[in-house]
């Protein structure tokens, strides 16, 4: 069966950088992704915690199908839906509060994504990290069950509770050109584990990038290995995710 390919962005297609805006897209990556998408009959999408607009900026001039903000946003065939900040008034108040509360914390960054927010502490010392994590936990707690806290790589994100990468991938798999194919999802983070589980449950293949405990069946060591694999597939190598190393 042909595959439908779902790719996480940070830590999977690009190496982790000190700040969200400092990631570097390897020359040739966009071209390889476009060629691979053609080979897969269009069944290739980016599934990310970032807004789709940011992905478009990094991967310009290409426009890929995408699920952004961990599934809050979706863009298929050029039509973007979800992710309107005005639908999240209580979250907006917490973003304002987090901005004020973290302003004096060295190395702590707020990434305001409209319908979600990320508090980053990659550049912070231990005391500031602990404070930032406590603040984002408190903000998420005060929002109740409509939102959830998602801890990732040196980051705590508050996202609408219903949105997950698992739902995003299942949603895409219901429509052309994804339907009827075998889902393959590559991701690198704790936040990707829920989609690894759903993809495997649905008969697909989950691939964890980097170390760490995982429910994925397959593993690649780092984004460089992912890029090499995708280049090979784009160039005509046999597409066999089962041949990847076991996790
Ligand atoms: O789902 P992803 O595509 O993996 O996005 C997850 C989050 O990635 C970004 O943050 C992470 O990458 C940054 C750049 O390498 C790094 O500085 C940060 O520490 C990481 O947590 C992004 O900024 C978030 O919006 C995404 O949700």
Record keyword descriptors for this entry.
Alpha-Beta Plaits, alpha/beta, 7 helices, globular, eight-stranded mixed sheet, 32% helix, 2 domains, binds the ligand O=P(O)(O)OC[C@H]1O[C@H](O[C@H]2O[C@H](CO)[C@@H](O)[C@H](O)[C@H]2O)[C@H](O)[C@@H](O)[C@@H]1O, four-stranded antiparallel sheet, Rossmann fold, 22% strand, 247 residues
Describe the structure.
- By secondary structure, this protein is of the alpha/beta class.
- It has two domains: 3-82 and 163-243, 3-Layer(aba) Sandwich (Rossmann fold), CATH 3.40.50; 85-159, 2-Layer Sandwich (Alpha-Beta Plaits), CATH 3.30.70.
- The chain contains seven helices and twelve strands.
- The protein has helices at residues 29-39, 52-58, 89-102, 126-142, 165-173, 193-201, 223-234; strands at 3-7, 44-47, 65-68, 73-76, 79-81, 109-112, 117-120, 147-152, 155-160, 182-187, 205-209, 218-220.
- An eight-stranded mixed beta sheet has the order 5-4-3-2-1-10-11-12, sandwiched between helices. A four-stranded antiparallel beta sheet has the order 6-7-9-8, with helices on one face.
- A hairpin with a 2-residue loop joins strand 4 (73-76) and strand 5 (79-81).
- Helix 1 (29-39) crosses helix 7 (223-234), helix 3 (89-102) packs antiparallel against helix 4 (126-142) and helix 5 (165-173) packs parallel to helix 6.
- The chain starts with a strand and ends in a 13-residue tail after the last helix.
- The model has no long low-confidence stretch (mean pLDDT 97).
- The structure holds the ligand O=P(O)(O)OC[C@H]1O[C@H](O[C@H]2O[C@H](CO)[C@@H](O)[C@H](O)[C@H]2O)[C@H](O)[C@@H](O)[C@@H]1O.
- Ligand L263DTV3 binds at residues 8-11, 16-20, 23, 48-50, 111, 118, 120, 122, 152-155, 157, 189.
């Amino acid at each position: 069966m042909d595959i439908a390919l779902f790719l996480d962005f940070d830590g999977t297609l690009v190496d982790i950088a000190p700040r969200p805006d400092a990631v570097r897209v390897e020359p040739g990556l966009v071209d390889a992704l476009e060629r691979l998408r053609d080979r897969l009959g269009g069944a290739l999408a980016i599934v990310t915690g970032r807004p789709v607009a940011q992905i478009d900026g990094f991967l310009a001039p290409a426009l890929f199908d995408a699920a952004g903000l961990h599934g809050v946003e979706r863009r298929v065939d050029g039509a973007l839906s979800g992710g309107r900040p005005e639908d999240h008034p209580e979250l907006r108040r917490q973003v304002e509060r987090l901005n004020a509360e973290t302003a004096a914390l060295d190395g702590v960054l707020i990434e305001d994504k409209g319908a979600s927010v990320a508090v980053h502490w990659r550049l912070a010392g231990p005391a500031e990290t602990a404070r930032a994590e406590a603040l984002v936990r408190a903000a998420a707690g005060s929002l109740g069950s409509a939102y959830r806290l998602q801890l990732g790589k040196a980051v705590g994100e508050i996202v609408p509770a219903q949105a997950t990468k698992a739902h995003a991938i299942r949603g895409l798999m219901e429509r052309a050109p994804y339907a009827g194919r075998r889902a393959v999802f590559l991701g690198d983070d704790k936040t990707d584990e829920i989609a690894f589980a759903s993809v495997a449950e649905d008969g697909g293949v989950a691939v964890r990038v980097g170390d760490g405990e995982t429910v994925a069946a397959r593993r690649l060591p780092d984004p460089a290995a992912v890029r090499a694999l995708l280049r090979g597939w784009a160039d005509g190598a046999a597409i066999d995710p089962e041949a990847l190393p076991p996790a």
